Amino acid sequence: EKVSKPIKQNILPVKSIDEKTPVFPIKPTKSFAQQKEEKQKIEKAKEEAIPEIEDISEIPEPTEAVHWVSFRNIIR
Predict the structure, then answer these.
(1) How far apart are CA 76 and CA 19, in angstroms?
(2) Are 23 and 15 in contact, with CB atoms under 8 Å apart?
(3) DSSP letter string, the chain
(4) Residues 6+ apart with CB under 8 A from 76
(5) Contacts of 17 (CB under 8 A, 6+ apart)
(6) How far is 9 from 13, CA to CA, in rounded Å?
(7) Taking the domains of the chain in order of start, what are their residue ranges?
């Protein structure tokens, strides 16, 4: 039936890079370069923060998860 088929044409105004990569125009997403640059900034900030902690054992367990959440918030 025609009704059961999802209409792929004319829904997305932006062409996807390839057929496996869907493009969602609803949320504006940053380019890979911008994401990489911001991730590098966070990595650099993490590296700069590490010397402040004398003993590695003082680093709390969820540190990496917290960084990941803040990274996701930045690129949102």
Answers:
(1) 24
(2) yes
(3) -TTTS---TTT-SSPPSSTTS---SSS----HHHHHHHHHHHHHHHHHHGGG-SSGGGS-TTHHHHHHHHHHHHH-
(4) none
(5) 23
(6) 9
(7) 32-75
Q: How far is CA 24 from the centre of its chain?
A: 15
Report the alpha-carbon distance of residue 15 to residue 13 in Å, rounded: 7
pLDDT in tens, 11-28: 555 555 556 666 555 555
Per-residue pLDDT tens digits for 26-76: 555 567 777 788 888 878 877 776 555 555 555 555 555 555 555 555 555
